[in-house]
Amino acid sequence: MWRILLVIAVLAALLIAAFAAEKPQPRADLVIINRGDVNTLDVQRMSWLQDLRIAAVVYERLVEHDIFSPDFRVRPAGAESWDISPDGLTYTFHLRASARWSNGQPVIASDFIRTFRRALMPDTAGDYVDVFRMIEGASEFYEWRQQALNAFAAATVKTESAEDLYARTLKRFDELVALKAPDNHTLVIGLARRVPYFLDLCAFEGLSPFYMDEVERWQTLDPVTGRISMDLGWTKPGRFVCNGPFVVSQWRFKRDMRLERNPHYWNKAAINIDSISMPSINEANAVLLAFESGGIDWVSDVVADYKRDMVLAKQAFYQEHASEYEALKAQGLDPAAIDRRLPPDPRKNIHVFPAFGTYFFNFNCAPRLTDGRPNPFADARVRRAFALAVDKARVADIRGIGESIADVLIPPGSLAGYTAPTGRGQDVEEARRLLTEAGYPEGKGFPTVEVLLSKDGGHELVTQSMASDWRAALGIETMLLVKEVKVFSEEVKQHRFMLSRAGWFGDYGDPTTFLDINRTGNGNNDRQFSSPAFDALLAKAEAQPDAAARLAVLKEAERLLVEDEFPFLPLVHYAQVYMFDASRLSGISPHPRQKQLLYLCDVMGDGKGTDTVLEMPTAIKASPPAKQR
After folding, report:
1. Are 389 and 474 a contacting pair, CB within 8 Å?
2. Strand ranges (E), 331-385
3. What pLDDT, on a 0 to 100 scale, did the predictor assign at position 620?
4. Of 204, 251, 295, 464, which is most buried by a Cβ count within 10 Å?
5. How far apart are CA 97 and CA 79, in angstroms?
């Protein structure tokens, strides 16, 4: 009997523990909808905006962007200062002695070197390996490691162990790669060539450091292949060590993520909140209801079908206060700053900001699809035909938030000194001619086009519009394949599609932030596009010392993409649609680069923080925000 009672007691204890674990936590200081679940905390495997947004607040890079400066200038972060050699090839960063990991250990130069080394291993490299190849000796090391792994795996009789090969690899890295740490707080990076935007790039989340002592505890060496096998157990709450303003205290997939202030972060005075919560609410209407009831402070992407009506309602609000609105606008105030000075009204809580990104659809450019079928989109004439058949104005109208039509990839006017090519708009007759030339007159013999989509974001309506164009202009039928976001992401990464919805936001202030994703072998080249001519233009630009001449070469590279090859179908240049009460929440930047540093957020009147409103600077002294009653 006592054994039965013991079993019951143990089960009861487990149930009590489970219920205790599920006990709701108090409301976080800042509650946001991050539009899509976070996929990973490994920045070397990130490409989705919701992941990068969290990386920006749990990791601290060498430098960060001033997101409220018009020029998006770089300012000190993990490094308090830096020196650049006269030839522009050597960057020396001086790290803060006060910087700490969330476990209290100091952040030192070797942390960056070990993290960057992980990014340059072909067996652990992620989507952004090309960024690290800018470092002198990085490409040579990558190739050496790949050849060593190939030789090790091919050997029927091993002359060394996987551990011996790894030890040789570490030694070879130190010999080849221009990453040095003269002392714990000095990091020297030598570049293979001048990179005008390198400092801007150092603020990109992909260059965040890891606490490698913990990361390496979760990796093993395969005795047969010699490759590093990674377990992402180090990214789980309780094990995850980071150096940013916040730490991850809870992460339950499809439920929520919660961040708490990092007690060891060096710049505590800059943080105005103690906690951030991100519940997973997938139903667009439920998101807005939660915002209207006060449960949500910021919606990072409004996707409700009626968002167009909401935007129109705000425009009507501006019309009702036209004279006041125009006067504030004349002061040079940013849109959120204007809203703070207008009378209270829930209609002004929706915000449409221009963004440094483009919405497009991928063409799979491989000769065959993953299931072995011949791929008609391997022919550039077919891709051009499909692109030229689309009425992009109707697509922009369907999306309904005033986005500009995109005939190019890089948003025009977004980069100083860079002039975009013209691109090609709708031309149905040319589309029909190209399809006939490719061997499919009036669409005869062309397979049904399968378009891969994620569930949210209104992509189905956009695709239905394009399908109507393709049927009318080319005689081709379309099938929509709608997947959950995580499944969709994996399908795209594995190239299991004919066409897929896509988009890209620039990571740094240079044309290559858009162009490089189409380079042969690039980790973000989901299209499997490969063009020797395009790759040669990128290489030519890399070798060009004259800034103006370099941009001219990059313009030609973009022209080849958007006028000849069409590995993607550009539709509109993004506008970002947010929901927040600008009079209550500060810290959300309207800058077109649309990078948000959540640690800057301050909820007005909550008894925490300085209640200082952050706004873009104006050329003239602006009137103060209206006080909240």
Report:
1. yes
2. 350-363
3. 53
4. 204
5. 9
Residue pair 385/474 in contact by the 8 Å Cβ criterion: yes
Question: What is the pLDDT, as a whole number, of residue 21?
Answer: 52
Please answer whether residues 108 and 95 qualify as being in contact, where contact means their C-beta atoms are separated by less than 8 angstroms.
yes
Return the DSSP state at 455: S
> So what's the pLDDT on residue 14?
38
C-alpha distances out from residue 173 to 120, 145, 176, 535, 618, Å: 9, 9, 5, 27, 48
The alpha carbon torsion through 502, 503, 507, 508 (nearest 10 deg) reads 130
In the prediction, which pLDDT does 23 show?
A: 67
Nearest to 553 by CA among 536, 529, 530, 570: 536
Task: Tell me which H or E stretch contains 258.
Answer: strand 256-261
User: What is the separation, in whole angstroms, between the first and last Cα of the chain?
Assistant: 67
Report CA torsion sign: 310, 312, 318, 320.
Answer: negative
pLDDT of residue 292: 95
**Nearest alpha-carbon partner for 494 in 526, 533, 534:** 526
pLDDT of 16: 33
Contact 187, 113 (CB under 8 A): yes
For residue 53, the model assigns a pLDDT of 94
Q: What is the pLDDT of residue 604?
A: 96
C-alpha span between 210 and 582 (Å, rounded)? 35
Determine the 3-state secondary structure of 394 from DSSP. Answer: helix
Residue 628 is predicted with a pLDDT of 44
Whole-angstrom distance, CA of residue 153 vs CA of residue 224: 6
Residue 32: helix, strand or coil by DSSP?
strand
pLDDT of residue 413: 86
Whole-angstrom Cα distance, residue 359 to residue 399?
11
What's the average pLDDT block by block, 10 residues per block, for the chain (629 residues)? Answer: 40 37 82 89 88 96 96 96 97 98 98 97 87 95 97 92 97 98 98 94 96 96 95 94 97 92 96 96 91 96 90 96 96 96 96 94 97 97 98 94 95 89 97 98 97 89 97 97 90 96 92 96 94 97 92 98 98 95 96 92 94 86 52
Q: Is the pTM of this model over 0.90?
A: no
Yes or no: say if 378 and 498 are a contact pair by the CB < 8 Å rule. Answer: no
Q: Cβ–Cβ contacts within 10 Å for residue 362, how many?
A: 25
3-state helix, strand, coil in the chain (%, to 5): 40, 20, 45
Long-range CB contact pairs, 68-76, < 8 A, 24+: 68/589, 68/591, 68/614, 68/615, 68/616, 68/617, 69/591, 69/616, 69/617, 70/591, 70/616, 70/617, 72/200, 72/509, 72/591, 72/593, 74/199, 74/200, 74/202, 74/203
3-state secondary structure of 101: coil
**Cβ contacts of residue 395 below 8 Å, gap of 6+?**
405, 462, 465, 466, 571, 572
Distance CA 452, CA 61 (A): 35
SS3 38: coil
Q: What confidence score (pLDDT) does residue 35 get?
A: 80
* CA dihedral sign of residues 155, 161, 166, 172: negative
